[in-house]
Amino acid sequence: MTKERHIAGLWESMGCQYTGGTTYSPEHREPEHLMPMSNYLQESGALSSDHACTLTDARQTVSRPARLQRFWRMTAGAMLLAAAGQAQAVEPDSPWPEVLQEARGESVYFNAWGGSERINSYLSWAADRLEKEYGVTLEHVKVGDIAEVVGQLEAAKLVGRNADGNVDLVWVNGENFASLKRGGLLWGDFANTLPNASLLNKSASMQADFSVPIEGLESPWGGAQLVFIYDTVTVETPPASAQALLDFVKEGGRFAYPAPPAFHGTTFIKQLLIELSSGSDAAAALAVPVEEADFDAVTAPLWAYLDQLHPQLRGAGETWPTSGEMTRQLLDDGELDIAISFNPNEASAAVRGGQLPDTVRTYVFDKGTIGNTHFVSIPWNASAKAGAMVVADFLLSPEAQARKADPEFWGEPTVLDVASLTGPDRALFDAVDLGVWALPLGTGKVLSEPHSSWAQALEAGWLQHYGQ
User: Which InterPro entries does the record match to this protein (predicted)?
Assistant: First the structure.
C-alpha cells in the first residue's frame, strides 16, 4: 500500500473523505505535540497545497477533538512503524558484501544535469549495467540546476524529514557541495570505503572541492580542466604562460575570452590570478573565503595585467565572445588563433563532428591550469543509501570511466590513475581513441580552484573595472 493510500484510509476511518483537495478547517489542527508529524506529511505530499485532505461534514466529524487526536496518533504510529520497517542497516563504513546485499532490489534516484543527450545516453547505459550486475535500478532525475536540489534538501531538513528522502544520489561540486556540507545535508564518509576508490589519482582536487575539504562526503566522478586549443597552421609555438600570452597578442596573435560572469571567462581570470599570485602571500589567500582576504591587494596584479591585455584582444576590450563554445567557432572561422575550453577532449569531438579542422591541437600552460573534479554524494536522508553506494562505486569502475572518457560516448577525462592500471583495466583506456587533437591522457598539471567565494567577487570586480 502506498503512503498516500494509507493516509487516505486513516482519514476515512475518522469518517472523513480524502479527495485530494486543498482545504481543511484551520481551527481543528492536530495537537501541538504532533505538529512535527503534520509538517512531515505536508512536506511529503499528503498535506501539500496540491494534494491535501478535505474533511467533509466538519460539524459532525472534524469538530470532535477526541477523534482528531485519535487520527493523528494513528497517523504518527503508522508512519513510525513504516519508517522502522524501512530501516536501513548499512552505514558509510559497512563491509562491502553487506552493502551489495542491501542494495539489491533498491531504486536509486540520481539527481543529475539532464541537458546533454550524450550524458543522458551514458547514464542510460550505466542503468542497464547496474540492473544486470547488481540488481539496482538507476533512475536519472534530469535537473537543470543542481542548486534547486540543494534547496529541496534544505527544505526537507527544515521540516524534519530525516528519512525516506526522494534524492538518493546527487551530482555536485563547488558552492553546491559547500552548501550541502555546511548545512549537514550529507550522509557521511562513504566515499573512502568504496572498493574502486583505490584506483583514483592523487590530485589535490580529490581532497578539496574548491578548497572545501571533502572528508569522504562525496565520491569523484569526472574531471575538467582549462585548456587552450590552437591551429598549427597559424601558430607554431603557442604561448605557455600568462606573460607569454600577453607577448603573443602584442605581437599580433589573435585571442579573446568570454566576459565574466560567463563560466569560461570567470575561469580564465581565476587562472590568471593564480599564476600572477604564485610565490606570494596572495596565493595562500585564494584558498580561504574571500572576506578573510585583502581583495584589493590580492587582485591588483590581475587588473594591471588585464589593462595591458584587453586593448590587444579581438574586440579590443569592447566586445566579447559569449562563451567558450563561441571562441571555438571563431577559431574554426579563422578569426582567432587560440580558443579556450574546460574539456580537454573537446577538440577531439569537434574535429570528428566537423566543427574544427584536423590541424588543431590542445595544450595547457607549462605550470598547469585550473581544474576541478565533479562528484556524486548521498544526502543524509536518502532512501536507498546502499544502492547509492553501489552506483557511486560502479561509476568509478575502469569499465564506466573508460566509456566516459571515450569521445564516442561522452569524452570527459577520467578521475582514475590510468598509469597504475594493469591488464584488462588498462586495455580499456588504451582502446580509447582521443586522436591527436585532445590533451593526451594523464598529461597537463591541474591547479586547484580558489575557494568558491572568490568567483562571485572576481566577477563583480571585473564588471567594475571593465563592464560597459
Answer: SBP, YnjB
